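Example record

Each entry pairs one chain with its bound ligand, coenzyme A.
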Amino acid sequence: MNHYTIYELLEARRSIASTQSKCEKALLKLQPGKSQHTLTAHRIAAFKIALELIDQELTRMTIRPEEPKDYREAEELTREAFWNKYRPGCFEHYVLHRYRSRPEFVKELDYVAEEDGKLVAHIMYSHAIITTDDGRVIPIMVFGPVSVLPEKQGKGYGSRLIRRTLDLAEKLGCGAVAITGDPAYYHRFGFVSGSALGVYYGGVPRTEEAPFFMVKELKAGFLRGVTGVYKDPEGYFAADDDVDAFDAGFPPKEKKKLPGQLV
Ligand SMILES: CC(C)(COP(=O)(O)OP(=O)(O)OC[C@H]1O[C@@H](n2cnc3c(N)ncnc32)[C@H](O)[C@@H]1OP(=O)(O)O)[C@@H](O)C(=O)NCCC(=O)NCCS
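Structure tokens for the complex follow.
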């Protein structure tokens, strides 16, 4: 069988499922025993087989918890995904490496996506807090780095990994999740600007919009009545010298100043 991309398979799935549903509606209006009825019933059976085969193919990608044997490969893929994207070089592979031994690390949500024995994506979550104006501390989570191998980006891997782990976070009892990133990407998962839920990004004046900082409630109403500030956990910050020393253990890669980088 050809190896189709996940995107192609999902598109085919959507299209077949919609045609199948139209046929099922049409079948109700057709008279049993008539040739049109038989033909439509055969078509529906064929669509079911096609959907089953697509689902089998889609499961080529396994989403599973990260294991110690994956650590280096996950760091390599994180480095590949982030390299020269937001700054010359990157530090996210170092953050991931160091985070696994930090108390805020959420071991249960440290996940990888694997295809044909190779890691194609990784995500990690951290415990975090919102400090409210009336002195309360509200526990939430934040995710990232989330990385997809460059040659696999834009094919649905990231979305599936994010959706799966958000479901798991909800099952773990997490009330809300924060993310800093591109709203164009994260709004599709139900993230809204933090300020819309009364949560402001530490260091940015409240009068200033910070659209890159988003929050999603996993329990409806979890942030009702909350006005406060979120700060990224300590583990997300890294000294340049430490990053460089860690990066020296990876194959050399050229740092480039590129348009669109944040730093
Ligand atoms: C961001 C990332 C995890 C998304 O995973 P992915 O598998 O490539 O994305 P998906 O296939 O699930 O989704 C594709 C969609 O996301 C959009 N998209 C992908 N990365 C994006 C980004 N950084 N910003 C905005 N939109 C993005 C694509 O344009 C596409 O949009 P469309 O569905 O409207 O056409 C992945 O591209 C990646 O590893 N990027 C480099 C590292 C990074 O930026 N991580 C996130 C930091 S917050």
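The mean pLDDT is 94.
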